[in-house]
């Protein structure tokens, strides 16, 4: 049995990783800003972080924020891992961080490079967007009477539990460097995904496709965030919606 620290262990991905590792018999420490006994803000570091890391064999770094701070958090975590002599650092990243000039993606790529240059044994897995994130985005868009979608953009969402299973598998193995990407089973237009959401939730909304400007939008439109050659996921977005909503009344 090994001791594994999961950062962001109460989040969308981290909680599933934690459950899988514990089911496999490992001692798992959950680190987040509010989870006791390892309630730590990675951006601040400090003695609490050293206490959480001390004695761990592997770190699975799932904690992230689109509001910024990922690079500072990773820097603190890597420094603590070095001090503790951690043998394996596993990082979850996103397909296309090296192809799409989007602010959050740039930060994820910078963290990848920190991990690679850390001197620790490391593994990096990139995946496409989770079904849960797509749902959150569409739910926010549907608050308006018209669903405004970026024109000519596709997506390849993946089931988070499948990513968690793969990440747990990697955490239990030897450092593997950059491993093969994971993509969802279908590449679909954002329009078709939005209409699937509206149907599943019983919402009536007009849909408008809006052309946008900028290098990031162009990269998304060109499919820089997709990996059709690595469509290894099995759970589809329609199956995710059916499990979440069943037959919803129209509103």
Automatic annotation (TrEMBL):
The residues covered by the NAD(P)-binding domain are: 8-132
GO molecular function terms attached to this record: protein-containing complex binding
Q: Report the InterPro entries cross-referenced here.
A: ComplexI_NDUFA9_subunit (IPR051207), NAD(P)-bd_dom (IPR016040), NAD(P)-bd_dom_sf (IPR036291)
| Cross-referenced Pfam families | NAD_binding_10 (PF13460)
PANTHER family for this protein = NADH DEHYDROGENASE [UBIQUINONE] 1 ALPHA SUBCOMPLEX SUBUNIT 9, MITOCHONDRIAL (PTHR12126:SF11), NADH-UBIQUINONE OXIDOREDUCTASE 39 KDA SUBUNIT-RELATED (PTHR12126)
The name of this protein is Uncharacterized protein YbjT (DUF2867 family)
Taxonomic source organism: Streptomyces griseoloalbus
């Amino acid at each position: 049995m090994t001791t594994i620290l999961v950062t962001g262990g109460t989040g969308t991905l981290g909680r599933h990783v934690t459950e899988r590792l514990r089911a496999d018999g490992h001692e798992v420490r959950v680190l987040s800003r509010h989870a006791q006994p390892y309630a730590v803000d990675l951006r601040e570091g400090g003695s609490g972080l050293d206490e959480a890391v001390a004695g761990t064999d592997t770190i699975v770094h799932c904690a992230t924020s689109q509001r910024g701070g990922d690079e500072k958090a990773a820097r603190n975590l890597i420094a603590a891992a070095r001090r503790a002599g951690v043998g394996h650092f596993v990082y979850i990243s996103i397909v296309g961080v090296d192809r799409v000039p989007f602010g959050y993606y740039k930060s994820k790529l910078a963290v990848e490079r920190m991990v690679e240059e850390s001197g620790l044994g490391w593994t990096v897995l990139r995946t496409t967007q989770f079904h849960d994130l797509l749902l959150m985005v569409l739910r926010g868009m549907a608050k308006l009477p018209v669903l405004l979608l970026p024109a000519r953009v596709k997506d390849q969402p993946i089931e988070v539990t499948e990513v968690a299973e793969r990440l747990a598998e990697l955490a239990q193995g030897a450092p593997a460097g950059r491993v093969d990407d994971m993509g969802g089973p279908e590449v679909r237009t954002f329009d078709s995904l939005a209409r699937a959401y509206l149907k599943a939730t019983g919402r009536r909304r007009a849909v408008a496709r809006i052309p946008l400007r900028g290098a990031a939008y162009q990269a998304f439109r060109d499919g820089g965030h997709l990996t059709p050659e690595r469509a290894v996921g099995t759970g589809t977005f329609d199956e995710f919606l059916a499990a979440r909503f069943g037959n919803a009344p129209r509103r």
